[in-house]
């Protein structure tokens, strides 16, 4: 999915703000989703139509909520705009039915009624949020699942004290670096990595021991950036640092 300014555009009727929209938006933002929602995304003096168009164009997904949705001119315009984005086969529209039946939806749009939808009468706002998160930001959803699994593991585990000598370094790779990650790993190695006592292959191997090597690489990229900025600011060459370390 193309990276855009907003993760999701919430198309809704103003009558639904208090009952679901505002709470849903807040829940999505708690998980760091960038949501276009008029109360948060419009400033005094903004053109409504221009701002809505920007939200539609620069959002990866559109979330539709109703019952009054079907009656509004603006929401109909938003729906048609979202529909046009689905022509190429991408799943853009993520429907949430709120106080409305499938038959009512069918009268408005056969296409919309045929899409799998979430139902606010059957699930809490938090449950709706998690299911939307799985589609909109699968990376965050996976992190959440890992966090929940980790919490359960900790809760059911026994704490023991061991000596450092008893700790075993993993030997089997948990992942293989993609071409993009390899390029990033090499950039780190030929920067701050020149001051470490390991080869490029050893450096790559250590990344591949991690379940999520991209996170470790991102951390090292931050350190590498600070390192390069420091030696540039103080006019220090890598060679000088190596001589001091030796």
TrEMBL record:
SMART domains (alphabetical): TIR
Stored InterPro entries: TIR_dom, Toll_tir_struct_dom_sf
UniProt record, GO biological process: signal transduction
Domain of life the protein comes from: Bacteria
Stretches assigned to the TIR domain: 4-124
Official protein name in the record: TIR domain-containing protein
Organism: Bacteroides salyersiae CL02T12C01
């Amino acid at each position: 999915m193309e990276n855009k300014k907003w993760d999701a555009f919430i198309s809704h009727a103003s009558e639904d703000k208090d009952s679901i929209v505002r709470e849903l938006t807040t829940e999505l933002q708690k998980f760091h989703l960038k949501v276009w929602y008029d109360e948060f995304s419009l400033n005094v003096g903004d053109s409504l139509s221009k701002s809505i168009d920007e939200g539609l164009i620069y959002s990866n997904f559109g979330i539709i909520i109703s019952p009054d949705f079907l009656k509004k001119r603006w929401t109909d315009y938003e729906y048609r705009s979202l529909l046009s984005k689905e022509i190429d086969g991408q799943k853009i529209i993520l429907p949430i039915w709120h106080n409305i039946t499938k038959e009512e939806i069918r009268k408005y749009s056969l296409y919309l009624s045929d899409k799998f939808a979430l139902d606010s009468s059957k699930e809490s706002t938090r449950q709706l949020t998690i299911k939307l998160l799985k589609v909109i930001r699968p990376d965050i959803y996976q992190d959440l699942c890992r966090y929940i699994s980790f919490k359960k593991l900790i809760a059911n585990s026994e704490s023991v004290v061991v000596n450092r000598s008893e700790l075993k370094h993993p030997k089997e790779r948990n992942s293989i670096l993609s071409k993009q990650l390899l390029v990033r790993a090499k950039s780190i190695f030929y920067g701050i990595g020149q001051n470490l006592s390991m080869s490029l292959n050893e450096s790559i191997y250590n990344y591949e021991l991690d379940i999520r090597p991209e996170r470790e690489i991102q951390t090292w990229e931050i350190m590498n950036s600070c390192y390069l900025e420091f030696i540039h600011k103080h006019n220090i060459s890598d060679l000088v640092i190596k001589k001091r370390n030796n």
